[in-house]
Amino acid sequence: MSLPQNFLWGGATAANQFEGGYTEGGKGLSTADVITAGSHTLARQITYTTKEGVECAQPIMPFKDLPDGSKCGVQKGQYYPSHEGIDFYHHYKEDIALFAEMGFKCFRLSINWARLFPMGDEKEPNEEGLKFYDNVFDELRKYNIEPVVTISHYETPLELVNQYGGWLDRRCIDFFVNYCNTLFTRYKGKVKYWMTFNEINMMGFLPFFAGGVTKSNPQAQAQAVHHQFIASAKAVKLGHQIDPENQIGLMIAYGATYGLTCKPEDQALAMEDTRKRHFYSDVMSRGYYPAYKIKEYERLGVKVSMEAGDEELLKEGCVDYLAFSYYTSHCVTSEEGEAIGGNFSMGVKNPYIKASDWGWQIDGIGLRIALNALWERYQKPLFIVENGLGAVDKVEEDGSIQDDYRIAYLKEHIEEMDKAVNQDGVELMGYTPWGCIDLVSAGTGEMKKRYGFIYVDRDDNGNGSLARSRKKSFHWYQQVIESNGANLKDIQL
User: Fold this and answer.
1) Catalytic residue among 19, 146, 159, 386
2) Cα 204 to the center of its chain, rounded Å
3) Which contiguous run of DSSP H or E holds residue 175?
4) E strands along 203-328, which residues?
5) What's the pLDDT band for 57 if we cut at 50, 70, 90?
6) Is 412 one of the catalytic residues?
7) 10 Å Cβ neighbour count for 459?
8) Fold for domain 8-482?
9) For residue range 420-432, what is the model confidence (pLDDT) as tens digits?
10) Are the CB atoms for 124 and 179 separated by under 8 Å?
11) Which of 57, 325, 368, 385 fits a disulfide with 416 by CB distance 3.0 to 4.6 angstroms?
12) What Pfam families would the database entry show (predicted)?
């Protein structure tokens, strides 16, 4: 058992969850900077001020329209975990050295758009922000670690929300393309792997996360994601023009969906649920809206406004590869079942598999199924850019962290990943487990929900020294990378 010699082993993060320095170096506010912490997803809130000047907050889930005329902003007395994260902004050299010690071939990170364009709509970028990422990329290159960069990862500049309504406004396309032009030009030769939008399919579930959209109806979500499709297509074309070496991919949240029973109605529901994800990759990989989505829009009365040339752009700007997150699977049924969720997807409990502390079902075989489904559908290289187990880690008296449960989860998924490649013929570029260093949970805003190989001394209230330490899984993953996936055995420290 082993993977191709050029396989990209690494880890994944996002600026809004680990970078910190939220007002340093000329950075502006982003959508993440106005979302509070919470003990679970439903407890997280967006803070805003009404046009009458009243400060308010509302839950991020289920998302409801913000009042017309309201402005999102930071309020006193609230805790916003993105403001400091785990302070990669000041610890990047230390953290990258730890990634190198594990043997990373690549590192997935995101650019914080508001660090480069504080308002989002400026013509010229913030030089101090550009220099920070220069330093990060140079540090990665020092260790021969390839940067894998998400251009927009749940952090639309806040002023684009307050002044334009986020991605609901077509002008955001030009702002984004200007931002991309800056990235592709400045970091030519330093970065060649890009993804335009993180989990773009979240626009249909959490529009504020996905694009700063404060309306939650199907019409608004359809229009906003169309603007992102066009922006992505333009970015792909531009990226190839500036540097033919650039590889630019899409990124979706993905997971296997099963009918709970062999009842035909359950299987039909599974088909429909899977289409909710495939729609986004269909458009970005194939270059056109699929018939099933056009029919759905007709039934809903949704009319997507397109400009002349949009259809041609979608065809011309298809992505080079398909990246996705995979954490869990779920079942659907036409009858009653025990509701569960995971990575913002909902379904019913599968009685044949176990679940994490947060109720996310653990299904390594589902990853193999997902890889085959995507490869057979698109015949484009795949990249698993998020996978992992969120768990509560205990620091022992000797300072060690025995996270065997995390090792077991990753081992199960890597084994199925290997089968997809070596038995099924799937073309897989790489594997970057999520939160390779502990960071703030996107869904809950917690620190106690940890994914990392590296422990960070930080609690849910922002307390702690931020000291880094190696978990047992750190040494195990080091062994996995060194053997190119051949050695998944347990280790004794």
Assistant:
1) 386
2) 15
3) helix 171-186
4) 247-254, 257-259, 321-326
5) very high
6) no
7) 10
8) TIM Barrel (3.20.20)
9) 999 999 999 999 9
10) no
11) 368
12) Glyco_hydro_1
